[in-house]
Amino acid sequence: MKGSGWIIPILMVLFLFNGCAHRQMTELNEANSLVFGYIDMDDSPAKELEAFTLKQVLPKTDKPYWNMRTYEGVFYMENMPNGSYQLNQFGGPGGFFSSASYYWFNFPTQADGFRVTKPGLYYLGSFKYKKAGSFWNPKFDIEPIESPGEREAIEKILQYSKGTGWEGMLLKRYQKLGGKKQ
Question: How far is CA 182 from the centre of its chain?
């Protein structure tokens, strides 16, 4: 396979560009919403939040899973239709000394989940991964935390809304929460 040594470097460059580009929000659809939140992964065996999914439970759909975008602990997805959703799964890569290359954590089924009832911004809150159980029976819990809050989450994702209708909505909310004009 002489001459094929260029394939791996090309694939690595494409992966890096894809990793950055997938965070960019698409243009605002005024009938839909932006849903976002934060998870502190410091106590998790995963070194960072790299994946987060929601499950749409109402209205029923053939493709109920929404793969959220992530950046520095913030999960977000724009243009989500009205409906009822449940937190489904999150995960990230293992650390250097980890025995797993990737960790997945499944949320238990939630009775109510949350509802997107009208177009706008929906902040789900900030949470911290918390170990529960034991070495032989590994479990986790998620507990609400105060900081970082909604304003800090918006600060992190605002750059990915540039040039879209979401940018104005996020800036307005950011300023209402005490953020300085950007």
Answer: 23
Q: CA 144, CA 20: separation in Å to the nearest integer?
A: 28
User: Exposed, middle or buried: residue 10 (CB in 10 Å: 0-12, 13-18, 19+)?
Assistant: exposed
Q: Go through the domains of the chain in sequence order and give each one's CATH number.
A: 34-149 (2.60.40)
Q: Which two tokens stand for residue 177?
A: 């929460």
Residue 182, pLDDT score: 61
Name beta bridge partners: 75. 37, 70
11 phi, psi to nearest 5 deg: -60, -40
DSSP state string for 1-50: -TT-TTHHHHHHHHHHHHHHHTTSPPPP-TTSEEEEEEEE-TTSSBSS--
Over residues 10-64, the pLDDT tens digits come to: 434 433 334 444 789 999 888 999 999 999 999 888 889 999 999 999 999 999 9
pTM, two decimal places: 0.82
Q: Tokens at residue 111, please?
A: 């009775």
Token pair 């029976």 is found at: 137
pLDDT of residue 135: 63
3-state SS, one letter per residue, for 104-119:
EEECCCCCCCEEECCC
